[in-house]
Amino acid sequence: MTTHNIQAKGATLFAKDEGTGPTLVFSHGLGLDHRIWDGVVAQLPDHRCVRYDLRGHGQSDVPDGPYSMGTLISDAEAVCDSLGLKDVVFIGLSAGGLIAQGLAVKRLDMVRGMTLIASAAKHGQPEPWHARAKTVRDGGMPAIIPEMLERWNARDDGAQLENWLTRANTEGFAATCEAIAGTDFYTPTSGLRLPTLGLCGNYDKATPPDLVRETTDLVPGSQFHLIRGAGHIAPVTHADDITARLTQFLTSIGHV
Length: 256
Known about the structure:
The protein is α/β, with parallel strands linked by helices and 256 residues long. The chain is built from 11 helices and 8 strands. The protein has one domain: Alpha/Beta hydrolase fold, catalytic domain (Rossmann fold, 3-Layer(aba) Sandwich). This is 3-oxoadipate enol-lactonase 2.
């Protein structure tokens, strides 16, 4: 396992690179970091697994916001280019799934497949995201945590997720909310033609299963599966189920 500090436009990004084999790139969701994938990556010894922290999160730099989704997509591109990654399957949770879609549209030469976990082409209307950004800038992370945990409906490991959010950077969280607010990928995602897997917990309130299925269905030939008993952060609470579905998908597209 090696770690990297990758130069992107206006930020240095932290990445972790481990294993050998066909490459998987993992992108986490709002208020979290690369560690959400620990339980999944541990079960994928025959792949090269690259995880990174979004700008404003984890060990990556925290430039002042707002951020744009285009910038977050360029960050993912910088990670892949810096490490010489090609023909990757890009796996994104929530906001990370938006990045997966945008990177596939921009660099189909780089992305040969994608997995969208608890993600959609558009995550609701802009106003609530701008309101969340204002809430955390005014009151810090404690002002937003109860709402986030309710929306995530974790059921398992709620204390761990609360601890993650408590440690999240306020400006990084708010600026990423603003990036999500301005994103609508229905049209570009509907033009994609690549192997696609959609996964969603049946208890997810933030991105309900019907919304995730709707986005997955935009890509012809895609697959969709429910993760029973899971809320929004299934890679943490249901790592075994996520890995099993992901492994089936990777085998079906020959990425093994």
